[in-house]
Amino acid sequence: MLAVEGVVGEPDTYYFGAVAGGVWKTIDGGANWTPLFDKQPISSIGAIAVAPSDHNVIYAGTGEAAVRGNTTYGTGVFKSIDGGKTWQNVGLKDSRQIGALIVDPRDENVVLVAALGHAFGPNAERGIFRTADGGKTWTKVLSKDENTGGIDVVFDPHNPNIVFASLWQARRQPWFFSSGGPGSGLYRSEDNGVTWKRLEGNGLPEGILGKIGITVSGADSNRVYAIIEAKEGGLYRSDDAGQHWTRVNDDGRFRQRAWYFSKVYADSKSADTVYLLNTGLFRSVDGGKTFNLLPARSGDHHGLWIDPQNPNRIANANDGG
Length: 321
Hints:
Elements: E1 3-7, E2 10-18, E3 22-26, E4 34-35, E5 45-50, E6 58-62, E7 77-80, E8 88-89, E9 98-103, E10 111-115, E11 127-131, E12 139-142, E13 148-156, E14 159-173, E15 176-179, E16 185-189, E17 197-199, E18 209-216, E19 224-230, E20 234-238, E21 246-249, E22 263-266, E23 274-277, E24 281-284, E25 292-293, E26 301-306, E27 314-318
Antiparallel strand pairs: 1-2, 2-3, 3-4, 5-6, 6-7, 7-8, 9-10, 10-11, 11-12, 13-14, 14-15, 14-16, 16-17, 18-19, 19-20, 20-21, 22-23, 23-24, 24-25, 26-27
């Protein structure tokens, strides 16, 4: 499982997206689950998001972006306006693999999608896409070339005009996988994702970059974390909203199979609390300097949802469920 999402104010309601099993929903804290996607032509889910402004509106990005040799692909973005009872494909049908999807907390019609594109070859429909009309039309707002796609995109929780995104140059073949290239990079937008500026230098690693995960603290908009695949990779931290960076952790546990993991999530109330996902679920309470392994079940952790109002309420997506 790659995608999981809770609903603020509804402590027993959660959605998850399976890499080959569609979208599921629980309203009793996980005791029972209902499949919501069985009537759709695709079952691979890479990302899912509930609109904060209207909990009946849900977007699902199809196609997993954890591109192993047995990766499954999707057919774009699906939308529900009735809590998952019915769905409509709203575009990006050739994006194939979707790494992340976010909904503006002020307007359920504004959505940003990180589309990785075809895993096994070049294509045009890849990068960061934006819609302001609920998926009727999409604009490619950030891209590099036909070999580079979007892998992560996040809002500043306190100011959704500020957005961070990462591009990833990657290619899967039956006999090998290539992660990284001149197309990969970290970007920042100050106008809700309409225009972008690449972040480089100022403490960020030089040379070829690979997969990048990004998160902004819910406690302090200046605190930004990025897990970066690179020769000098590791966990990087900014204390000035992405202007300058420091590598705070280069532990090999968090750099192994970076192309498969590289997921980072900031706590909603403590700027120094941050989570890294890899073969285990790890938490730091000192700004990323040290991490402890949490007693989460199963291995290979890929997704985390932290309640913006209650950071003790967390949902974790991993290979065991």
